[in-house]
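Researcher: Structure for this, please.
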Amino acid sequence: MAYKLLVGPAIEPLTLADAKRQLNVDQDFTDDDLVIARITAAARQYAETHTRSSFITQQWSLVLDAFPGYWTSGGLLFLEHGPIQSIDSITYLDMSDTLQTLPPTDYATDLSGVRGRVEPRFGLVWPVTLPQIGAVTVNFTAGYGATAASVPEGLVHWIMLRIGSLYAIREDASQDGGAMSREDGDLRWRYWISC
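Model: Predicted structure, token format:
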């Protein structure tokens, strides 16, 4: 099972102007605009990964080796990176190695929760797929909406706090001023980003 981002968000939930206000950077000072844009994107990406969510509308693909079995998940297919806005397509390789598209009338969805759920309509079962890796692909659209205003304020505020730390401390250095091993750097990064 693997998720792949097909189309990323068109905008960030925090505009450059708002980020500069948060950082107390003069709007006319443009030397750090690229740095501020990058740390804003990094903070958003970290928050999305940590929460397994999508903030601004984006398109994803989930690749599976087969449809879920009834003995393991009751036949339910779960989708992360929500909130899920829509299921765009479900395709699979049939036993003759031909790509088929499952009609939307053949499955039911519940997109109201943190994770999306998909299952065959009552009286139907998932089709038999070619027994090979990557036989099933689910393309879907996720996110709170296309505008920054659609993202919950708590998530935006968290991003604002993170960019303050990332902007203030842009170098990675050990406490004793010496060279840092990769392990030390990884541990410090994990600690620093989780604060």
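Researcher: Any notable elements?
Model: DSSP finds five helices and eight strands in the chain. The helical segments are 16-22, 33-51, 70-73, 153-168, 182-194.
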